[in-house]
Design brief:
- The structure holds 2 protein chains of 2 kinds.
- Chain A is α/β, with parallel strands linked by helices.
- Helix content of chain A is 63%, strand content 7%.
- Chain A folds into 2 domains: 194 residues, no CATH class; 123 residues, Rossmann fold.
- The radius of gyration of chain A is 32 Å and the shape is elongated.
- The radius of gyration of chain B is 18 Å and the shape is globular.
- In chain B, a hairpin with a 2-residue loop joins strand 9 and strand 10.
- Chain B has a single domain, classed as P-loop containing nucleotide triphosphate hydrolases (Rossmann fold, 3-Layer(aba) Sandwich).
- Classes of the chains: A alpha/beta, B alpha/beta.
- The structure holds adenosine-5'-diphosphate (ADP) and magnesium ion.
């Protein structure tokens, strides 16, 4: 008879598959839209604030860099003109060592606009089949040889570069580039000499900025966490009875916990995406009015900004889940009887 | 018309709900169950030692005034809370010995719960409510949907399957709750004042439905109430007063009392 081994009649409950919990969580979010929107706006505000802080940093840095660059370009142009007079109708040779920096590229544009007779480009970025030996053909007919690019070493001795020139003139974009010198060849340096103390100032400013930024970021993250935890706690409190009912129907604690974690991660993800996008756009528009849209949008480092945005979305989502841990645990541990008694 | 459809559904369900009739003996035994609620310094003795055996397949009403401990007893024998002292056996199993996974299994398959406030999941349609316990039991969705439809037919709500609870009357909601309680063909249907939020006529319909379920499915019905008018359908009545089992009686004896009161 059954009485002999009573325990064997009771089985072990397994939680339903994840997608089931997912469906129920989504359904809950959709129907309780009002409550979900409160939680969502907590995440949106937090991440928007975070992202606007970060974007401000990006814009400030980019605008400063851009202004720096423009100033340097003006200096370069005047250096060049003081050496060779007007560029129009003359032939210039350019040796590209490594990859062109944005500043180099800007300089090339500037040179092209000045209508030289020819602008001869040699080097890695300019012609893929580049051999250092090609660089030796730079000299004849040119009034100056420019060394551009980010490589720290010029692969060809200056004498070889300038062979066949009347008045050998080498202009380098890097002050610290290693070149094999040659007697009678002057190497002018464009960038990076007159701006040393300005750099120091910028670096010091950046250190101060960083401290302030970290502080603001921490505060905005804390605001997000507390806001989301509070909204989810309310959402749990509201649903005591529902939680109790589900437990009566056979829900395991793990299922209840999963329900709330799915809900919070979905809201966290949506809220972070909205917050990050609106934070970036808002900041860019505001700075666009301050600095001018051309300057802001033209100078922005879009790649790193996108990376920062991605990081903010991930952070926002994780924070929402972290904020939900306590409410979810609380909900899942409720004794069904007391969950059902609640009259909220 | 509706009755007939329901009876057909019942016949079909009989095959699936299985072995209730084959078994016998006590389905629930409560032995000297006590419950003390402590809130700060104050103590409430909600149950002061209740011993009660419930026969398999009977319709037992638990009768008592408000605050007498009916809900507390309901929670104890339903495995929804732990007694301070005493034992509860469901199908000979001491439920205090069960781990959370076994308890969930038991709540899912052995017992169906019906509440005074219906407690439907508001965000789900009727049929989703009925399918929820099936999902917890790990049952395949298509098969579950068919079974849920059958049960909804059985309680006379086949045409409301896709409605949300908020769109239905109290009586209809309670019938959905009963359908949900039946989802996994439980041995026991536990109801805590199922008619207290309903008008007299609707309440009686619910009681009749319980009676029909007991007769046709062989499910044990335990229903708490404080309303004498809801006792007629029951086989036995357990009177609870101030946390104690005052007496056991049959509806025949009670009817005399009701007459006297009137
Ligand atoms: N969770 C609880 N905490 C404290 N006291 C409770 C709790 N549940 C019930 N009680 C008390 O226990 C007594 C019995 O309550 P209950 O079982 O709900 O009675 P009934 O269902 O018969 O109206 C009441 O005095 C009630 O206030
Ligand atoms: Mg009660």
């Amino acid at each position: 008879m059954k009485t002999e081994e009573p325990q064997s009649e009771i089985g072990i409950q397994h939680p339903p598959p994840f997608r089931r919990a997912f469906r129920i969580a989504v359904q809950g979010i959709r129907i309780r839209l009002g409550r979900s929107l409160v939680t969502l706006s907590g995440v949106v505000l937090g991440t928007a604030f975070l992202m606007s802080t970060v974007t401000t940093q990006f814009v400030d840095r980019a605008v400063a860099r851009e202004r720096d660059a423009r100033q340097q370009l003006r200096i370069m142009e005047s250096v060049l003109k003081s050496r060779i007079g007007s560029i129009e109708g003359k032939t210039l040779s350019v040796a590209v060592c490594g990859t062109l920096t944005p500043m180099d590229a800007a300089l090339l544009d500037l040179l092209r606009d000045a209508k030289p007779a020819a602008l001869r480009l040699y080097g890695a970025a300019a012609c893929p089949g580049f051999e250092p030996a090609n660089l030796t053909a730079l000299g004849p007919g040119a009034v100056a040889v420019l060394i551009l690019g980010d490589a720290p070493v010029c692969p060809v001795p200056l004498a070889a570069l300038t062979g066949g020139m009347n008045v050998p003139l080498v202009i380098d974009s890097r002050s610290d580039r290693q070149c094999q010198p040659a007697p009678g060849v002057r190497r002018e340096i464009f960038f990076g000499r007159q701006l040393a103390d300005q750099r120091d100032r910028v670096a010091k400013q950046a250190r101060q900025d960083r401290f302030r930024t970290i502080w603001i970021v921490v505060v905005s993250l804390a605001v997000t966490i507390i806001g989301v935890a509070n909204a989810l706690l309310m959402s749990v409190t509201e649903r005591f009875r529902e939680i109790g009912t589900m437990k009566c129907l056979g829900a395991l604690s793990v299922f209840i916990r999963r329900l709330f974690l799915i809900e919070s991660s979905l809201i966290g993800l949506a809220g972070s995406v909205i917050g990050v996008i609106s934070g970036i756009l808002l900041t860019l528009v505001v700075y666009g009015f301050i600095y001018g849209f051309g300057l802001v949008f033209g100078s922005l480092a879009y790649g790193p900004l996108m990376l920062a945005a991605l990081a903010a979305v991930i952070t926002g989502t994780i924070l929402a889940v972290v904020a939900a841990l306590y409410p979810a645990r609380f909900a899942s541990r409720m004794v069904p009887a007391s969950a059902l008694r609640s009259t909220v | 018309m509706e009755e007939r459809a329901s009876d057909e559904a019942l016949e079909r369900l009989l095959t699936s709900s299985g072995d209730n009739a084959a078994r016998s003996g006590y389905v629930i035994r409560a032995v000297d169950v006590r419950k003390v609620y402590r809130m700060g310094d104050s103590e409430t003795h909600a149950l002061r030692g209740v011993t009660l055996d419930v026969h398999r397949g009977e319709y037992l009403s638990i009768m008592g005034p408000s605050g007498s401990g009916k809900s507390t007893f309901f929670n104890m024998i339903g495995g929804l809370d732990k007694p301070t002292a005493g034992k509860v056996y469901i199908d000979q199993v001491d439920i205090a010995q069960l781990d959370p996974y076994e308890l969930a299994w038991l709540r899912c398959r052995k017992v169906g719960y019906v509440f005074q406030t219906f407690n439907l999941i508001q965000v789900m349609s009727c049929i989703e409510n009925v399918m929820l316990p099936m999902a917890f039991a790990g049952r395949d969705s298509e098969e579950a949907r068919e079974k849920a439809m059958e049960i909804l037919d059985l309680v006379g709500l086949g045409d409301r399957a896709l409605h949300k609870p908020a769109e239905m009357s109290g009586g209809q909601q309670q019938r959905v709750a009963i359908a949900r309680a039946l989802a996994n063909s439980p041995d026991i249907l536990l109801a805590d004042e199922p008619t207290a939020n309903l008008d007299l006529k609707t309440g009686k319909e619910i009681i009749d439905l319980f009676r029909r379920l007991r007769d046709k499915l062989g499910v044990t019905v335990i229903s708490a109430t404080h309303d004498l008018k809801m006792l007629k359908a029951s086989d036995r009545i357990a009177w609870i007063d101030d946390g104690r089992l005052a007496r056991l009686s049959t509806p025949a004896e009670v009817n005399i009392d009701v007459e006297e009161v009137h």
